[in-house]
Amino acid sequence: ELQQKVEEAEVLKMELQMLETERVRLSLVEEKLMDVLQLLQQLRDLNISKRALGKILLSTLESCRDPQPGKAQLFEVLDTLQQELTACELLHKQPMEQAQSPRSLSNPLVISC
């Protein structure tokens, strides 16, 4: 009976470890998904065309067609999509435009004074 309790405890430990591993995996997927959604929001705010966004998505799906061994396919797709979105030229132009916007808004005020 004692041996059975020890075996049950070992099984429960293994199940707990598997649950913890899954929790960590889901947490990583959630973080990556949030990053992707933030990038999509930034691109939407910059009025990226649906065609350009579609090209990014198709490029991502094409590059993830054959899953890499040892890497979860969902995470691989999200990771690749994040890289594709990050590489989008509009996002790299955004900081320059934001830096210019306050100057262009403040210049008329300075002139009017």
TrEMBL record:
InterPro entries: CCD48. It comes from the Eukaryota. Keywords: Coiled coil. It comes from Cnemophilus loriae. This is EFCC1 protein. Residues 2-46 form a coiled coil.
